[in-house]
Specification:
single chain, Ubiquitin-like (UB roll), 11% strand, globular
Amino acid sequence: MHFTINGQSHDIDVDVRTSLLDLCREHLGLTGSKKGCDHGQCGACTMLVNGRRINSCLSLAVMHQDDEITTIEGLGQVGDLHPLQDAFVRHDGYQCGYCTPGQICSAVGMLDEASKGWPSHVSADLSDVELSDEEISERMSGNLCRCAAYPNIVDAIREVAGKGNRDPNAEVGREVAA
């Protein structure tokens, strides 16, 4: 099978039952994306496929031949971080770091969705999506953080989105963690 992952071509013989996550981790040594629940419930395995975020633990690798796949390793490098990676570091948007690669990949996809005007469940105005704290929390609700770094994650995303700092009175993450 042929895959393009992080801009590099890979021709690899792999069992058709192999998930995209296992292909990257076990066959290509791309261990940034994590296997959390292996049921699509935690988001630790989030990758971008053709710019869209997916839970790679639920997706068979064979389904993504010739797609453009981006893992956390493809977003930035040491000394040249992606803006979201940099913001996560500066805002302490991680604690143990296990969920961080999935959080960042999901945030990249989420910001692209919002820039295209895609509404979420809590979008008040479907013609003009505003990235409020509630909106960011809803859009990131598929990515869980057991350490509860949600306010810092939202701050990092708000900064990259150009929306300034979080409302200090907002209750961010409560509905995400529930």
